[in-house]
Design brief:
With 393 residues, this protein is an alpha/beta fold. The protein folds into 2 domains: 225 residues, FAD/NAD(P)-binding domain (3-Layer(bba) Sandwich), CATH 3.50.50; 154 residues, D-Amino Acid Oxidase, subunit A, domain 2 (D-Amino Acid Oxidase, Chain A, domain 2), CATH 3.30.9.10. Helices cover 36% and strands 34% of the residues. The chain has 11 helices and 21 strands. Strands 7-6-15-16-17-14-18-21 form an 8-stranded mixed β-sheet. It has a 6-stranded mixed β-sheet with strand order 9-3-2-13-20-19. Helix 1 packs parallel to helix 4, helix 1 packs parallel to helix 8 and helix 8 packs antiparallel against helix 9. The longest helix is centred in the C-terminal third of the chain and has 30 residues. It binds flavin-adenine dinucleotide. The site of flavin-adenine dinucleotide has 32 residues, from helix 1, strand 4, strand 14 and helix 8.
């Protein structure tokens, strides 16, 4: 079995593991990143039709590490967000001129991953291994050794970026709080007749929230993406109906805020669950992104929180490097946990409770929701605070 050595081993090359590898490479560490699947850029069967809404806070960090200039060309700005409860009577409009900056940016997941991979190829201190299945962990005094199907990799620190069903977490028995939602989410990308004017919409229906994200136009066609949480069986049945019926159903749900649906380009279903690890570290291991926490996509923040993990980790690693200390010590892992746990926990709770409040239908709750919408719509300061939260700054 081949043996390799590095400073940081990142397990999982999803959109979080990749950005983490890129950020750390700037500090001069020797990094190995492993992925159990084939290299998706070469795999024509790779299928993720989702888009990611990148918050302003994430954009600022991506700028700092030099990735934003590659991503921005393929992203669409969000300048306004319109939130509606059940119907148009309860609504809040968040404008980008409340803050000087844009509210966010929308980019296709496949594009995002390809851009980061291309940028990583230029980094000589990063090695990527695909189709590498992780088996178990051993420890030496100052190293952790990960044993894979065909190789052993020793490192000062192992970063688990292997998603919500993290094998690292299962192997190390890190306890979690978990919630399985009764709903799934359907993601539909489509062309439409009117300009989206860089506006994102969120409709809160009893069956679950429906968001519309503005996308870059393609061949002069206005394009957007719907993310709709709803009953699992109902969404499965939508996957089977013909495009005309699906168009009618979606048009009935979204009204004509962006005109009529001209063409449905893709539809895909994603199961919904959320979890948070009771701690974000083990001996010589830290958890980042969905391996540490996964949340309901109601506010489009899952990846953005993962970026905050990377930022926290990056800043800690930078300080450690400057002090001539090693990564992966007990103190290092504890500091990372202290830096990240509470922030992620807040998002976990807020998104879960938002979903709960907006789904419930009762006279009292309807009254309070209506009262809350009016209050926020009229109160500039409150709006600013919510805008800052959504922008991740
Ligand atoms: C419908 C929907 C819409 C969303 N929209 C948004 C949005 O607009 N904005 C936002 O911020 N977030 C959004 N999210 C959340 C976002 O998709 C996730 O937070 C993000 O994908 C997490 O990235 P990750 O790299 O941590 O995990 P993943 O994307 O799950 O990647 C983990 C990687 O690790 C690999 N892996 C797993 N096990 C191993 C192993 N043992 N060895 C090696 N590799 C392994 C996997 O193959 C995978 O490539 C959305 C989520 C859903 C469900």
């Amino acid at each position: 079995m081949k043996e390799f050595d590095c400073d940081v081993l990142i397990v999982g090359s999803g959109p979080i593991g990749l950005v983490c590898a890129y950020a750390l490479s700037l500090l001069g560490y020797k990094i190995i990143i492993t992925e159990q699947k084939k290299n998706i850029t070469k795999n024509k069967f790779f299928f993720d039709t989702r888009t990611t809404a990148i918050s302003q806070g994430s954009k600022i960090f991506l700028e700092e590490i030099g990735l934003w200039r590659h991503i921005c060309k393929f992203s669409e700005k969000i300048k306004n967000i319109k939130v509606m409860d059940r119907n148009e009577t309860n609504k809040i409009n968040f404008f980008h001129n409340l803050k000087k900056n844009d509210l966010g940016y929308v980019v296709k997941n496949t594009k995002l991953i390809n851009i980061i991979k291309t940028a990583l190829q230029k980094k000589t201190n990063v090695i990527s291994y695909y189709e590498t299945k992780f088996f178990f962990i051993e420890y030496k005094t100052d190293k952790i050794i990960a044993v894979f199907n065909d190789k052993k990799i020793s490192a000062r620190l192992l970063v688990a970026a292997d998603g919500k069903n993290s094998s690292v977490r299962q192997l190390l028995n890190t306890p979690i709080f978990k919630k399985q939602y009764k709903e799934n989410a359907i993601v539909v990308n489509f062309f439409h007749t009117l300009k989206h004017n860089n506006t994102a919409y969120e409709f809160f229906y009893k069956s679950g929230p429906l968001a519309i994200l503005p996308m870059q136009s393609e061949n002069l066609n206005h394009q957007s993406s719907i993310i709709w949480s709803n009953n699992k069986n109902y969404l499965s049945s939508l996957m089977l109906v013909d495009k005309e019926l699906l168009t009618n159903i979606l048009e009935e749900k979204i009204g004509n805020v962006i005109g009529n649906i001209k063409q449905i380009n893709s539809k895909q279903i994603f199961p919904l669950s959320s979890h948070i690890n009771q701690r974000f570290y083990e001996k010589r291991v830290i958890y980042i992104g969905d391996s540490a926490h996964s949340i309901h996509p109601i506010a489009g923040q899952g990846w953005n929180i993962g970026l905050r993990d990377i930022k926290g980790f990056y800043e800690l690693a930078k300080k450690t490097n400057e002090l001539g200390l090693y990564l992966g010590t007990q103190q290092f892992c504890l500091n990372y946990n202290q830096n990240r746990f509470y922030d992620a926990y807040q998002f976990y709770q807020v998104t879960d409770k938002l979903n709960l409040i907006f789904k419930k239908d009762s006279l009292i709750l309807n009254y309070f929701r209506s009262f809350g919408f009016n209050l926020i719509e009229k109160n500039i300061n409150l709006k600013k605070r919510i805008t800052n939260f959504a922008m991740g700054i």
